[in-house]
Amino acid sequence: MAVEVRVTSTLRNLVGEKMVQGHGATVGELLEDLDARYPGFRAQISGKDGQLHRFVNVYLNDEDIRYLQALDTPVKPGDVASILPALAGGGLPALAGGAR
Amino acid sequence: MLSLERRYVDEVIAHAREDAPNECCGIIAGRDGRPTQLYRAVNAEASPYRYNVDPKDLLRIYRDLDNHGWDVLAIYHSHTHTEAYPSPTDVSLAAWPEAYYLIVSLADEAKPVLRAFRIQDGRVTEHELQVVDDAGAHLDAAR
Q1: Is residue B51 in a domain?
Q2: Which ipTM score applies to this complex?
Q3: Fewer CB atoms inside 10 A, N or C side of chain A?
Q4: Residue B105 lies in domain
Q5: With 0-12 CB in 10 A as exposed, 13-18 as middle and 19+ as buried, what is A42?
Q6: A36-90 pLDDT, tens per residue?
Q7: Nearest to B58 among A87, A94, A99 (CB)
């Protein structure tokens, strides 16, 4: 099924538009579908282990998927997924243990 | 060059002072490089050393500016004890290459310093910040 995925910033440049249709039954499948059509998509938002970067926010409708079932969150027609990179940083000291 | 009306600069500094000793953060939306609205954001870290716009607040702000047809013109945050220059953490987490990063330093409480940067692929470039009055006349540099 097709679900609208809204992207911004670097992902928008990769996709060429701010909205794209993704296919799949879960948020994770949507992202895999987009990665297949836009190589490098997953690399922008997740690590080699397939988990989303801590500093990437993925929402389904109004909810952060961290508070749903993360990448296993089911999607249905009419849903809107949004991907927004975190706005984060800070002064000294640097984050312990690495930023990502 | 980033050109901001005085009221935006005043608002960023006021926000930084109100949230001190924690860092503050927010977004200035714009259209065609001109600022249209400032959004104060919730710092989910509530820390003197870090900021992370609360994800729910980020979605709220982004939806609102996108509905207006605006872009993220600038992302601002405060450094409460250090200079107004991107820290290693700021650089490593910078994910909005098309936006200006505005940093206000409160290291000298009496004289806040505001500077503008772009952070792209780990590279920091400083951009001139021009402060204008509401009629668009050039006032002075913010520094």
Answers
A1: yes
A2: 0.86
A3: C
A4: 2-132
A5: middle
A6: 999 999 999 998 888 899 899 999 998 999 999 999 999 999 999 999 999 999 8
A7: A87
